[in-house]
Design brief:
Shape: globular
Helix content: 40-55%
Structural class: alpha/beta
Strand order of the largest sheet: 1-2-10-7-8-9
Oligomer: single chain
Bound molecules: ligand F0G
Amino acid sequence: MPDLKSLSTTLGPVWPGIIRRYARFLPVTAETSVVTLLEGNTPLISVPNFAAAIGARFDLRLKYEAMNPTCSFKDRGMTMAITKAKERGAKTVVCASTGNTSASAAAYAARAGLKCVVILPQGKIAQGKMSQALLYGATTVSIEGNFDEALNIVRELGETGLVEVVNSVNPVRIEGQKTAAFEICDALGDAPDFHFLPVGNAANITAYWKGFREYADAGLSDTLPKIMGWQAAGAAPLVLGYPVTHPETVATAIRIGNPASWQGAISAAKDSEGAIRSVTDEEILYAYMLLARTEGLMVEPACAAPLAGLIKAIAAGEIPDGSLVTATMTGHGLKDPDTAIKTAGFSPIIVQATKQEVMEAIGLG
Ligand code: F0G
């Protein structure tokens, strides 16, 4: 048995958050006062049961970004955005959001002592995400419109010079988010063959491709993955080639019709010899439930878009046997309890408080 001292040595140093860990790749200096909740260092989880269930003859690992402090990948970009906003002396930060950016902005602003304003599409924010913005104390505005309209308003607010925009139109957000690609390479010892991820406003696909390239350029990985981005069929402007005025999908996180990082997404797919495609809500919900039931992993519906995409790619014979495939699970399933309960397809069995009734209810009576 190791004694306590050697045990703590084997556990290694405390994780310092993504800015300090990857400072050499980020626009910070030794003097930067970092606003962090120790985001990053999320697990890369093997999912052999799910892989077998979809007929994969390759190694599949999920980057489980649900393990970030506000339970989504947005914290990587937000530690950068709020650190820089504070450095510049901003007093108020503002963002449009489908729910996760607002949760993250509200949390990091609270941590930094900044005022936070979030602009949300009314009625289209999952309950868990709404609870976060409210409890962290953000000024929360719901517009009778969609994310794209909210982002247009935020851009105009930014032009007044009175507030700092922390959407991904602020380039430091993408700088922070690229660290997820670094972590994947660190965990695997190289880049994967394919990387799958959901696409909404298209910052994350842009960030991953930047991250994989920078790591290769620095000699820290040897290869580059094919980047496979997945949109929901009702909100697939990048697949259609033109903006969608009224995007609709059960995956509200990616209910976006005119992505801000349009060109970044197209370049990531083209330059990596990957693709951006779409899957239907039905396909999304199937993959969402299959992952939960085969692996005990709860993700939000948007994360199931790349999983549904993987099923399609397998059917099309696009993934060679023995490949190493990674996919980003961008947010936690608890963010959207309503969709979880609806998709599960059954309710608790209600019985009298007796052993007999419970036995009958579970089929042992
Ligand atoms: N997955 C989740 C869970 C998201 O919240 C988002 C985006 C994406 C994927 C897509 O990432 O926009 O960089 O292509 N959510 C933003 C928000 C739009 O406001 O929380 P993207």
